[in-house]
């Protein structure tokens, strides 16, 4: 497996990285609908999967930023 190191200037509010409220609300609606109905249609499932991937990416960025900040202190 290859790796690449990228140096990025973090914004001052990097600790607040999270899904924007409107997208979080939409994901909640989709997941609640899935719980109630047992499944989503294809477009809804694709939308939910994309939002989940975004949540995962933001969480990973936040974790890596926290680690980098800890190493630089």
Helix amount: 55-70%
Are there runs of 5+ residues with pLDDT below 50, and where?
none
The SS-based structural class is mainly alpha
Fraction of residues in β-strands = under 5%
Q: Biggest sheet, open or closed, and with what strands and sense?
A: none
What order do the SSEs take from the amino end to the carboxyl end, as H and E?
HH
- Principal-axes geometry comes out as elongated
By DSSP (H or I, 4+ residues per run), the number of helices equals 2
The oligomeric state is single chain
What would the average pLDDT be, to the nearest integer?
86
User: Rg from C-alpha positions?
Assistant: 16 Å
Looking at this protein, list some descriptive labels.
66% helix; mainly alpha; 73 residues; 2 helices
Please, could you describe this protein's structure?
This protein is mainly α and 73 residues long. It has a domain at 42-73. It is 66% helix and 0% strand. It has helices spanning 21-37, 42-72. α1 (21-37) packs across α2 (42-72). The longest helix is centred in the C-terminal third of the chain and has 31 residues, at 42-72. It is elongated. It starts with 20 loop residues before the first helix and ends with a helix.
Care to give the gist of this entry?
The chain has 73 residues and is mostly helical. It has helices at 21-37, 42-72. 66% of the residues lie in helices and 0% in strands.
Write the layout of secondary structure elements.
Elements: H1 21-37, H2 42-72
Helix pairs in contact: 1-2
């Amino acid at each position: 497996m290859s790796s690449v190191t990228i140096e990025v200037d973090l914004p001052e509010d990097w600790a607040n990285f999270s899904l924007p409220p409107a997208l979080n609300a939409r994901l909640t609606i989709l997941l609640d609908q899935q719980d109630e109905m047992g499944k989503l249609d294809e477009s809804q499932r694709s939308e939910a999967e994309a939002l989940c991937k975004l949540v995962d990416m933001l969480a990973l960025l936040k974790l890596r930023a926290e680690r980098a900040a800890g190493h630089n202190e």
